[in-house]
């Protein structure tokens, strides 16, 4: 199975979302165990007791590791003003430079001092040997891929799918109401300027047997141009293949003709977003939703949850003859 748009492991603790998706396809349990290289060494992610002991050539137990991390963390930073300061406050210089600095620069295309501290909300360290990348109750990958699941969701008498069909605002009068999940700024013709996005390029390779022995290998060194390599046969261990395909993943600024993968949300972007939200709130026949429509980074489970909630909200408002709200995000639902 090939993940054309990059690796997607479904993970959630929301039982309603999990049950909804399982109505449309069978999931196989899958635990994502990510590795990373730094200066020709391989380490376990997220940073855990194994990582700490590997990196410092120690044999700490959890209590000793906590004391060690506390001793190397930068205690002089009381109120972190950016991502770098937040990371230094949490884990100190060595772990920051090994596992955060280079990767973050490549992923976001800017210095970590330009990113908000809020990106790193909590201590990114586990003081045990748990290397499960996610901590959600349900984790898996569809047996037949995501395409049949989407096809099943769309297989409804009230749904008409038009492929390779553009949409122009002039067509809005043909419909009672529109749910817009395209780019928020695109709807308004980029009148206030373009919101910043990152896009991804994937360089595909084929090889005999195995290539790297794991599904995902990050590359923390800034000198390595790609952020990670994913080997897709490891996402579906129930399949058997003599050959393998793997992808080098490159992150860069999103151009006009690129696929926008995730929002940057720097200070300038947030100011611009406020202008577009003000415009969106003036719309009466449009509801802006989803990652692109609300300019947010959202995992698959959150996106599905919001779609289900929004659908119910719109139906309830229509039945009650209420004015349909135009801009939805999770705090409003």
UniProtKB/TrEMBL annotation:
GO terms for cellular component: cytosol. Gene3D superfamilies: NAD(P)-binding Rossmann-like Domain. Pfam families: GLF. Residues 98-297 form the UDP-galactopyranose mutase C-terminal domain. One of its GO terms (molecular function) is flavin adenine dinucleotide binding. Transmembrane segments: none annotated. This is Glf. It comes from Acinetobacter baumannii. The lineage of its organism: Bacteria, Pseudomonadati, Pseudomonadota, Gammaproteobacteria, Moraxellales.
């Amino acid at each position: 199975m090939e993940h054309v748009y990059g690796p997607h492991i479904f993970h959630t603790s929301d039982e309603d979302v999990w049950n909804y998706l399982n109505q449309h396809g069978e999931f196989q349990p899958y635990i994502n165990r990510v590795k990373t290289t730094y200066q020709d060494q391989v380490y376990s992610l997220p940073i855990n007791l194994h990582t700490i002991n590997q990196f410092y050539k120690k044999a700490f137990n959890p209590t000793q590791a906590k004391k060690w991390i506390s001793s190397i963390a930068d205690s002089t930073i009381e109120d972190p003003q950016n991502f770098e300061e937040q990371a230094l406050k949490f884990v100190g210089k060595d772990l920051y430079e090994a596992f955060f600095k280079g990767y973050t620069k490549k992923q976001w295309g800017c210095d970590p001092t330009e990113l908000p501290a809020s990106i790193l909300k909590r201590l990114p360290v586990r003081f045990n040997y748990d290397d499960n990348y996610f901590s959600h109750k349900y984790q898996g990958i569809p047996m037949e891929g995501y395409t049949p699941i989407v096809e099943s969701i769309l297989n409804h008498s009230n749904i008409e799918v038009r492929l390779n069909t553009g949409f122009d605002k002039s067509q809005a009068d043909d419909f009672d109401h529109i749910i817009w999940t395209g780019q928020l700024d695109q709807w308004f013709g980029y009148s206030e300027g373009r919101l910043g996005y990152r896009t991804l390029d994937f360089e595909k390779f084929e090889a005999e047997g195995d290539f790297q022995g794991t599904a995902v290998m990050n590359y923390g060194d800034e000198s390595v141009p790609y952020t990670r390599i994913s080997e897709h046969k490891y996402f579906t261990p129930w399949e058997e293949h003599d050959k393998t395909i793997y992808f080098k993943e490159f992150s860069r600024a999103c151009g006009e003709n690129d696929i926008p993968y995730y929002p940057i949300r720097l200070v300038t972007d947030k100011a611009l977003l406020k202008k577009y939200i003000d415009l969106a709130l003036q719309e009466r026949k449009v509801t802006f939703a989803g990652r692109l429509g609300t300019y947010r980074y959202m995992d698959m489970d959150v996106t599905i949850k919001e779609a289900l909630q929004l659908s119910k909200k719109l139906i309830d408002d229509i039945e009650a003859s209420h004015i349909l709200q135009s801009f939805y995000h999770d705090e409003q639902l």
